[in-house]
From TrEMBL:
Limits of the THO complex subunit 2 N-terminal domain: 14-48, 66-235
Gene Ontology terms: biological process: mRNA export from nucleus; mRNA processing
Pfam family, one: THOC2_N
Protein name stated in the entry: THO complex subunit 2 N-terminal domain-containing protein
Gene Ontology CC entries for this record: THO complex part of transcription export complex
GO molecular function: mRNA binding
C-alpha cells in the first residue's frame, strides 16, 4: 500500500490512471482486511509528501468525511502531548488547509481538535498585553530618591520616545511572540490557508482569532502580503500608467474593478501595511487611479 501510494505520488503521470489506482486500493483493503482508518492515515502521510499530486483528492473521498476530520485531528493531537517536544510540521498544516479548501473536510470539525482553547489563548494574550503596557508606562519615569529630592524641575532631563524607539519596542514584542505561532496550532492553520491562497477560510480565522492580533506575527503578515499581491497582480498596468508622464490619464482606458476580498485583506492588515512599503505604494497608486477615473 505504501509503495503504491508513494509511486503514484512521485509520478505525476499516474494521475491519468486514478481510477485504476482506486480500484487497486479497494482490492488491497478487502483482500487483506485492512483497517480503513489506518489506510486513510497512510494516504494522508503520502499526501503530505506529495501535496502537488491531485490524485489524492480522488482517494480521500473513499473514506467517510467525519472520519477523515477525526483522523487528521488525531495527527494534530499527537503534537500536543507533553512528551512530544516538536512543533507541527508545516506539511501537515498545508494538507489540512488544502483539504478544507477543496471541501473534503469541514473547518469546524478539524478546528475542534486544535489547541490551545480560544478562551485560554485570549486570557494569555491579555496578560501579555497588560505586562507590556506596564513596562511601557515606566519609560521616562524619574526616581527622585536616587537623584535627590531637591532636584529642580528645570534640571530634570526631558524623556521623549522617538520613532526609532517605538519601532524597537515593536520588534521586541514581535520577537517575544515568535514562539507563539509554533505553540498555537490555530495560528499555524491560519498561516497555511494564506500559503494555499484560501482567503475565504483565512478570513474566518482572522475573525475568530482577532483578539490575538494574528497579523502582528511576521509569518502571517508576510503570507497576507503575498495573497494581496496575487490579488492585485492583474492591475500592474495601472501602476505602469503613473510612470508614463507624457500620456495624459484621460487617454488611458482601464477598468479598475477591485474585488471585495481586496479590501477585506487590507482591513486584516491594518496598520501593519507599513511593513511593505512597495505594496503600500501600489495600493496608493491603485486607489488614486480609481478615484481619478470617477472624475474623467
Amino acid at each position: 500500500m505504501v509503495t503504491l501510494l508513494c509511486q503514484i505520488g512521485s509520478d505525476l503521470a499516474c494521475q491519468n490512471s486514478s481510477s485504476v489506482t482506486i480500484s487497486i486500493i479497494k482490492s488491497l483493503i478487502g483482500h487483506f482486511d485492512l483497517d480503513p482508518n489506518r489506510v486513510f492515515d497512510i494516504v494522508l502521510e503520502c499526501f503530505e509528501l506529495y501535496p502537488d499530486n491531485t490524485i489524492f483528492y480522488q482517494l480521500i473521498p473513499l473514506f467517510p468525511k467525519s472520519h477523515a476530520a477525526q483522523i487528521l485531528g488525531f495527527k494534530f493531537q499527537y503534537y500536543q502531548r507533553l512528551d512530544v517536544n516538536i512543533p507541527v510540521p508545516p506539511g501537515l498544516f498545508r494538507i489540512a488547509a488544502l483539504l478544507v479548501k477543496s471541501g473534503l473536510i469541514d473547518l469546524d470539525s478539524l478546528y475542534a481538535h486544535l489547541l490551545p482553547n480560544d478562551d485560554d489563548a485570549f486570557e494569555h494574550f491579555d496578560s501579555f498585553v497588560t505586562r507590556r503596557i506596564d513596562e511601557a508606562s515606566k519609560i521616562g519615569k524619574i526616581n527622585l530618591a536616587a537623584t535627590g529630592k531637591d532636584l529642580m524641575d528645570d534640571e530634570k532631563q526631558e524623556i521623549t520616545i522617538d520613532l526609532y524607539t517605538a519601532l524597537e519596542m515593536e520588534n521586541d514584542i514581535v520577537e517575544e511572540r515568535a514562539l507563539e505561532i509554533e505553540k498555537n496550532q490555530k495560528l499555524g492553520f491560519l498561516l497555511a490557508f494564506l500559503l494555499v491562497h484560501d482567503w475565504d477560510h483565512a478570513q474566518l480565522l482572522f475573525e475568530r482569532l482577532a483578539h490575538l492580533n494574528p497579523v502582528e506575527h511576521i509569518e502571517i503578515c508576510e503570507g497576507l502580503f503575498r495573497i494581496i499581491r496575487r490579488t492585485i497582480s492583474t492591475y500592474d498596468i495601472v501602476f505602469q500608467t503613473f510612470h508614463m508622464m507624457d500620456t495624459p490619464l484621460s487617454s488611458q482606458i482601464f477598468s479598475v474593478d477591485l474585488p471585495k476580498e481586496f479590501f477585506q485583506m487590507l482591513a486584516a492588515c491594518g496598520p501593519y501595511l507599513h511593513r511593505d512599503t512597495l505594496l503600500f505604494q501600489k495600493y496608493s497608486y491603485l486607489m488614486y487611479y480609481r478615484f481619478e477615473l470617477e472624475f474623467v
